């Protein structure tokens, strides 16, 4: 039996590789958060690696280091086609060739012209190369990065918490807390995986948010997103402390923010509020994914997710494709992605 050709072995190895990539998401941009696994000649996992922060080794190199001599004659399973160019690090395709692996399987082809072509290089060296599908129930850490490459701007997720009847705040403006502790903890885990979090000046003035990714005890997580405020107003806290001095970036418009963030390396960003900023991004057509946290409360009246209509008739409203539903205690997280069809 050739273990590297066994679909069940490959699928399980890809699951491990995807989990490894997800662990470094938020720390690798502008590089993709790739995960890699090395199987020895008997089909056993002997190496696992993930992309390191910019300038550090790529996932394949980390996995090969972990495997050592056991990689010889084995199989590499990677979430992205091994790169074929020399940047701050050498080409991963050549590293796999040098390690004498027998086969390489990957989830996504590399869409970038400067790094693509790794599969052809590997085949030219006599290595078996194939593409495999993702197993069910595993988060794809590359979705945001791949979207950004395709769009030429950061991939944008719009996140909001709402009541069962669709309101983000009560009539008196109170919004803490529509969702419970499990949902809020999930928000902080997600923040740590983003390159940047965006809010409008109105939200910054009204809520005085920190936008940090924290553990339940209030301590900061190891990876923190860039914190961005968008709007034309000069935003100050307490009448004296400018947000820039507290580490916030400030852009006048969503278009400026998208351009500057992409140019400076951000690929996967989260728009958290408020309704005005959410509406601006929707009207621009720049929302690629939606995270709707649904709390177990009914309000009847209150503040909506958007401040004005983005479709004049139901038949004109775009339909979104459901991507995932997650139970978080008494609440739900329902995620949708833009329907490209």
TrEMBL record:
Q: What is its EC number?
A: 3.5.4.26, 1.1.1.193
Task: List keywords of the entry alphabetically.
Answer: Hydrolase, Metal-binding, Multifunctional enzyme, NADP, Oxidoreductase, Riboflavin biosynthesis, Zinc
| Pathway(s) this gene product operates in, as recorded in its UniProt entry | Cofactor biosynthesis; riboflavin biosynthesis; 5-amino-6-(D-ribitylamino)uracil from GTP: step 3/4; Cofactor biosynthesis; riboflavin biosynthesis; 5-amino-6-(D-ribitylamino)uracil from GTP: step 2/4
Cofactor: binding details: Binds 1 zinc ion.
InterPro entries noted in UniProt? APOBEC/CMP_deaminase_Zn-bd, CMP_dCMP_dom, Cytidine_deaminase-like, DHFR-like_dom_sf, Eubact_RibD, RibDG_C, Riboflavin_Biosynth_HTPR
Q: Which reaction does it catalyse?
A: 5-amino-6-(5-phospho-D-ribitylamino)uracil + NADP(+) = 5-amino-6-(5-phospho-D-ribosylamino)uracil + NADPH + H(+); 2,5-diamino-6-hydroxy-4-(5-phosphoribosylamino)-pyrimidine + H2O + H(+) = 5-amino-6-(5-phospho-D-ribosylamino)uracil + NH4(+)
Describe the location of the CMP/dCMP-type deaminase domain by residue ranges: 8-119
Q: Which GO terms describe its molecular function?
A: 5-amino-6-(5-phosphoribosylamino)uracil reductase activity; diaminohydroxyphosphoribosylaminopyrimidine deaminase activity
Cofactor field:
Zn(2+)
* Functional note: Converts 2,5-diamino-6-(ribosylamino)-4(3h)-pyrimidinone 5'-phosphate into 5-amino-6-(ribosylamino)-2,4(1h,3h)-pyrimidinedione 5'-phosphate.
Record-stated family: In the C-terminal section; belongs to the HTP reductase family.
| Name of the protein this chain belongs to | Riboflavin biosynthesis protein RibD
Q: Which gene does this sequence derive from?
A: ribD
């Amino acid at each position: 039996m050739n273990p590297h050709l066994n679909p069940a072995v490959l699928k399980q190895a890809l699951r491990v590789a995807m989990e490894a990539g997800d662990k470094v998401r938020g720390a690798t941009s502008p590089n993709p958060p790739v995960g890699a696994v090395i199987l020895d000649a008997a089909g056993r996992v002997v190496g696992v690696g993930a992309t390191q922060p910019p300038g550090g080794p790529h996932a394949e190199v980390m996995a090969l280091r972990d495997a050592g001599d056991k990689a010889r004659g084995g199989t590499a399973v990677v979430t992205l086609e091994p790169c074929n160019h020399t940047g701050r690090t050498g080409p991963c395709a050549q590293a796999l060739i040098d390690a004498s692996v027998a086969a390489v399987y990957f989830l996504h082809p590399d869409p970038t012209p400067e790094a693509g072509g790794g599969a052809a290089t590997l085949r030219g060296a006599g290595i078996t190369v194939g593409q495999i599908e993702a197993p069910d129930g595993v988060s794809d850490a590359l979705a945001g990065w791949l979207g950004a490459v395709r769009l030429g701007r950061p991939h944008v997720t719009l996140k909001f918490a709402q009541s069962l009847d669709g309101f983000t705040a009560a009539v008196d403006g109170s919004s803490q807390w529509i969702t419970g502790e499990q949902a809020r903890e999930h928000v902080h885990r997600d923040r740590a995986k983003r390159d940047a979090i965006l809010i409008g000046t109105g939200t910054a003035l009204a809520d005085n948010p920190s936008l940090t990714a924290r553990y339940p005890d209030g301590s900061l997580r190891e990876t923190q997103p860039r914190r961005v405020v968008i709007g034309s107003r000069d935003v100050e806290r307490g009448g004296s402390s400018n947000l820039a001095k507290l580490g916030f970036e400030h852009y006048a418009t969503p278009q400026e923010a998208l351009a500057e963030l992409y140019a400076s390396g951000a690929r996967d960003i989260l728009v958290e509020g408020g309704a005005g900023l959410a509406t601006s991004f929707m009207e621009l057509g720049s929302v690629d994914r939606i995270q709707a946290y649904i709390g177990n409360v009914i309000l009847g009246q209150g503040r909506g997710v958007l401040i004005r209509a983005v479709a004049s008739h139901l038949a004109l409203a775009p339909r979104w494709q459901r991507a995932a539903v997650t139970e978080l205690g008494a609440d739900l997280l329902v995620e949708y992605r833009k329907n490209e069809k």
